[in-house]
Amino acid sequence: RAPTIIFAPSGGTGIEERGASTRRIACDVNRGPGDSIVAEATASCGLSATHATQLAESIRKLFTAARKVEARSLEINPLVLTKEGQFVAADCRITIDDYAVARHPELKIEIAREFDHPPTPLERVAYAVEQNDHRGTFYFAQLATTAAKDSKGLVGFHGAGGGGSMMSMDAIVNAGFTIANFTDTSGNPSASKVYRASRIILAQPDLVGYFGSGSGVASQEQYWSAYGLAKAFWELDLNIPAVIRLGGNTEDRAVEILQRMSRLLGASIEGYRKTDAPATIAARFAELVATGKGTKWKPRAPRLPKFVKDPSVTTIPVKGGRVRIDSAQWSQIRGAVETHSGGLIVDRAGAPVSSVPGEEFATKDSELLACDVECRLGGVEGFYLELDIPGLDELIEGAR
Predict the structure, then answer these.
(1) What is the pLDDT of residues 214-245, one digit of tens each?
(2) Which end of the chain is more exposed for a tag (fewer CB within 10 A), N or C?
(3) What gap in Å lies between CA 277 and CA 275, rounded to an integer?
(4) Cβ-count burial of 55 within 10 angstroms (0-12 exposed, 13-18 middle, 19+ buried)?
(5) Is 109's pLDDT higher than 80?
(6) Superfamily (CATH) of domain 4-101
(7) Domain residues of the chain, as ranges?
């Protein structure tokens, strides 16, 4: 395998299919195309010797430019010869390898995504989350800010896995809704990443509901996603319906988590499994929205337990946030916290401390998020995991 230059004397679409007139020039990954092969290709274009030499040099420069910026592809179509005798790229498209963007600040690429629009402020916030946490994938793109004519309303979409997400998007569109965004959290994401994704989806105004559905056969523990969603829904006091299809490993546990959280909120939160077809749950989603009597989501800052502001609160840092424990209630909540944290937090001399070194504890944000949710579901006040999403609250406040 080697980088290849596809060259044709005439431009336009479909040059890959013009086998007779198209040349494929294999390139050494370090040195580029061989001079003799390039000269042979340009000699067949009916140009003068001078122009053929210029064209050959342009082809070699194309490879040099692509290699310099670590491009996955570089296309010039057409390459024109001006009346002044100069070769000029009349149209050009370069696709940079996502993983190379950080090495090329000179390109001033804000987000390594192929959007059809300049990145929105919310997309910038989401991309920063992805860059700061490489556990699984988080992709977020805004699609619409207003519902289409005759639509039943804007929907916050949360998928898991490309193919299944596409099928699920079709289902919700066929049910009469407009999709506000595309979101994918897959590849075994952390609970914290799913939480942040959900918070970002719910930073969009005028949503009539939250629809989550992906491949249905994801090889990832679905309860982590359920915990992330449950925390976001509680913090924002969700008041629009949410229908979530969490198909895959431990889906029963995931559905149970969502059902339990639904009892604490005014919104209907329903969990579904891989055997539930996207079209079926989309129809159910439409029923729930219809009973909501036109309620539209208003983005808001997360609610915080009152004890978080107390000067005596115990604070332990984690990746991208901090654990807050009500020291005054420690003796009453100790048993629940030790159990739900899996022993990560224990009692020492009557005070809560981490049972592992600080560096290791900082990576346990998902386990501590689960502890947060389980304490909440069990009516245990005094434990809270605060997770940062830089720029999000400021963005929401500025939009009010």
Answers:
(1) 876 667 889 999 999 999 999 999 999 999 99
(2) N
(3) 6
(4) buried
(5) yes
(6) ATP-grasp fold, B domain (3.30.470.20)
(7) 4-101, 121-291, 306-399
